[in-house]
Design a protein that fits this description.
The protein has a single domain, classed as Rossmann fold, CATH 3.40.50. The chain is 27% helix and 32% strand. The protein contains 5 helices and 9 strands, in the order ββαβαβαββαβαββ.
Length: 199
């Protein structure tokens, strides 16, 4: 089941590492990618929309958690642009986590990456939880990520996420209103970026 999906591990999958680049302002970020990870050929447009929207609206934060971090795109750009040394990225995909570790060195930032099934191995509270959730893993997993964030946020902390309209963004946002105050921050080519704060 899901043998070649980016939210599982497949040791038999051939490795074909490649470098993909992303520019934010005058800064060039390079990321090692590989088969078996999310958005292996280029940085996902949803992730780009999420990070650029967040950086336009950013607050002073001391730490962050990136859930479903993949090869580290969101974590690394956040750490570098906000000059934060207390970022954590979690994922179930070991190949992606190994790439993320390499990518911190490539981009000269400090982020801790660890294996965790959603919040299973997460400790502490965060000013920001950010996620481009794995839609293909199913709605239950997505909702566990979004609703579970509340238990890992500082009292004034924020959850930021991106979901495509045709992947249920409207119904998911509606479901979150029982738990959070939700504000849609950006709509871009069908992608909804939204910010959640505890009621």
């Amino acid at each position: 089941m899901f043998l070649n999906q980016y939210f599982t591990n497949n040791d038999q999958l051939k490795s074909e590492k490649r470098v993909i680049s992303y520019y934010y302002g005058s800064t060039c970020y390079d990321f090692l990618s590989d088969n078996g990870v999310f958005s292996k050929k280029k940085v996902d447009f949803g992730s780009i929309t999420l990070i650029e929207t967040y950086l336009k609206n950013k607050k002073d934060i001391k730490n962050f958690l990136d859930v479903g971090c993949g090869y580290g795109f969101l974590s690394i750009v956040l750490a570098k642009e906000l000059k934060i040394n207390h970022g954590v990225g979690v994922d179930v995909n070991l190949r992606a986590l190994n790439l993320a570790e390499e990518n911190t060195k490539l981009n000269q930032v400090s982020v801790s990456f660890k294996e965790s099934n959603i919040y299973e191995n997460v400790e502490g509270l965060f000013d920001l939880i950010i996620t481009n959730p794995p839609i293909r893993a199913g709605k239950r997993v997505v909702m566990d990520i979004l609703l579970g964030a509340k238990n890992h946020l500082q009292p004034e902390g924020e959850l930021w996420a991106v979901i495509r309209k045709d992947q249920g963004a409207k119904s998911i946002i509606k479901a979150l209103l029982n738990t959070y105050r939700v504000e849609i921050k950006e709509k871009n080519k069908g992608f909804y970026v939204f910010c959640c704060k505890s009621n």
